[in-house]
Design brief:
18 helices, 421 residues, globular
C-alpha cells in the first residue's frame, strides 16, 4: 500500500470504495453531456439548442445544491447518494430506450436532462462531505485533493469516450451504457461504512433550513480567502467552462471531423485532466497549491482564445489537452482549499454554496450559444476567452488572499487557515 505521498488516502478501504462509486457516477453524468449535445444537434441543427440542452442539467444546481448541502449536514449522506444515483440511472435509461425506439422528441431530452441534473445537484455536497467521514486526519489532505479531482476530472474524462461510443454503437446505446454504470455505483455504496454524523459545534437540526444556509454564507463572507474562491468558481462556471458546450459544433463545423473527431478531442481533454489531477495531488504544501491555483486560473482565458482561433485538428487536440490540464488544476486546487478551510459541521452547506455557482454555467452556455448563432463559433468563443482574461485579472487583484501564503503555513501540508480581517 501507499504509506506516504500524494495517493496515501487510498490506504483506506472505505475511501477507495467511495472513490470508485463516485467516479462511476460522475463520469456517467458528464459522459451524457456530449451525447445530449450530439442528438440535439442531429434533431435541430441548431448550435443554440446544443448549448441550451447542456445548460438544462446545470439549472437545478441553483436550488437543489443548497437543499442537498443542508441535508448532508442533517441526515445520512450515503442515503442521499443512493437515492440520487438511482434516479439518475432511471432517467438515462428512459432516454436511451426512447432514442433506440426512434420515439425521441426534443422535449423528452430537456425534461429528462432536468431530472438527471436535479438528482446530481442534490448529491454533490453530500458526496464531497463524506470524504472526512472515511479518512483519518493524517490522510485528509491527500483524500481531499484526490476526491476533488474526481469531480473536475469527470467533466472531461466522462465525455472522452462518448464520441467514440456514438460513432460505433449509436447515441441511444451510449445513454444506456451511462445508465448501466450507475448500477455498480449504487451497489458499492451499500458496503461503505460511514459513521453517524456528529455535528460538533453546530446548530444543525435545531434551526430552520434558511438559518442553516445563512450561517454558512456568513462564514464565507467574513473570510476573504473563501469568498475569493467562491467568486473564482463563478468565473470558472459562467465564463471558462461553457466552451465544452460548443465542442460538437467545433468538431462538425470548424474542424470537420464528426462524432469520431469529437471523441478524440474530448479524449485529449480527458488526458490533460488526468495529468492535472496527479499534479495537484502531488502538491506538498500550501505554497505549491496556491501556485498551481494561480497558474491554472491565469492561463485558462488565453487557452480558450487560442482554441477558438485554431482550425487545425492536431493543434486543437494539443490545446484541448492543455485546457483539460489547467481546468483540472484550477478546479481541484479551488475545491481542495475550500474543503480544508472549513469545519466539518459546515462542510456540506459551504460546499453546496460553492456548487451553486456551477448553476451559473447555463448563463454562459446560453450566451455562447446565441453568440455562435449570430457571430459563428470561433468568434463567440474568442470573445468569451477575452472576457475570461479580464475577469481573472480583476479577481486576482481584488483578492490577494488567493495567492498569498502566510509564513507559518507555507511549508505545512495543505494547512489552509483563512485570515479574518
Amino acid at each position: 500500500m501507499l504509506k506516504a505521498g500524494p495517493l496515501r488516502a487510498f490506504n483506506s478501504k472505505q475511501f477507495r470504495l467511495l472513490w470508485v462509486s463516485s467516479l462511476l457516477s460522475i463520469v456517467s453524468f458528464f459522459m451524457v453531456l456530449v451525447s445530449r449535445g450530439w442528438i440535439v444537434l442531429e434533431l435541430t441543427d441548431s448550435p443554440f439548442m446544443v448549448t441550451a440542452v447542456s445548460a438544462v442539467p446545470m439549472l437545478p444546481i441553483l436550488i437543489a445544491s443548497p437543499v442537498g448541502g443542508i441535508a448532508a449536514d442533517r441526515i445520512s449522506r450515503r442515503l442521499i447518494l443512493v437515492a440520487g444515483d438511482a434516479v439518475s440511472c432511471l432517467s438515462l435509461l428512459i432516454l436511451g430506450v426512447l432514442i433506440v425506439a426512434d420515439a425521441i422528441e426534443v422535449w423528452h431530452i430537456f425534461a429528462l436532462s432536468f431530472l438527471h441534473g436535479l438528482a446530481f445537484a442534490t448529491m454533490m455536497p453530500a458526496r464531497m462531505a463524506m470524504v472526512p467521514d472515511v479518512l483519518e486526519a493524517s490522510d485528509m489532505a491527500s483524500g481531499v485533493a484526490i476526491f476533488s479531482a474526481v469531480f473536475s476530472a469527470g467533466m472531461f474524462v466522462g465525455p472522452a469516450p462518448a464520441g467514440l461510443l456514438i460513432e460505433n454503437f449509436g447515441v441511444g446505446q451510449t445513454f444506456i451504457i451511462a445508465a448501466a454504470m450507475l448500477v455498480p455505483a449504487v451497489a458499492i455504496l451499500f458496503v461503505v461504512n460511514v459513521p453517524r454524523l456528529d455535528p460538533v459545534g453546530a446548530n444543525v437540526g435545531h434551526t430552520s433550513m434558511v438559518a442553516d444556509l445563512v450561517e454558512a454564507m456568513s462564514h464565507i463572507r467574513i473570510r476573504p480567502l473563501l469568498l475569493g474562491l467562491v467568486l473564482m468558481g463563478v468565473v470558472l462556471s459562467a465564463v471558462n467552462m461553457p466552451y465544452q458546450s460548443v465542442l460538437p459544433v467545433f468538431a462538425r463545423d470548424v474542424l470537420g471531423t464528426g462524432a469520431a473527431g469529437l471523441g478524440y478531442l474530448t479524449t485529449a481533454i480527458g488526458i490533460g485532466a488526468l495529468v492535472g489531477s496527479l499534479t495537484v495531488a502531488s502538491a506538498g504544501n500550501d505554497r505549491q497549491l496556491r501556485i498551481l491555483l494561480m497558474a491554472g486560473f491565469l492561463t485558462f482565458g488565453p487557452l480558450i482564445v487560442a482554441f477558438s482561433i485554431s482550425g487545425v485538428f492536431w493543434l486543437s487536440l494539443l490545446l484541448g489537452f492543455l485546457l483539460g490540464l489547467v481546468t483540472q488544476v484550477t478546479l481541484t486546487s479551488n475545491l481542495t482549499i475550500i474543503q480544508l478551510a472549513v469545519p466539518n459541521y459546515l462542510r456540506g452547506r459551504i460546499l453546496s454554496i460553492r456548487m451553486i455557482v456551477i448553476g451559473l454555467g447555463p448563463i454562459g452556455m446560453v450566451g455562447l450559444g446565441l453568440g455562435t448563432e449570430i457571430l459563428g463559433a470561433q468568434t463567440a468563443l474568442g470573445l468569451m476567452g477575452t472576457a475570461s482574461i479580464v475577469l481573472t485579472l480583476i479577481l486576482v487583484w481584488a483578492f490577494p488572499d488567493l495567492h498569498r501564503v502566510e509564513p507559518d503555513t507555507a511549508n505545512a501540508a495543505f494547512s489552509v487557515r483563512p485570515i479574518v480581517r
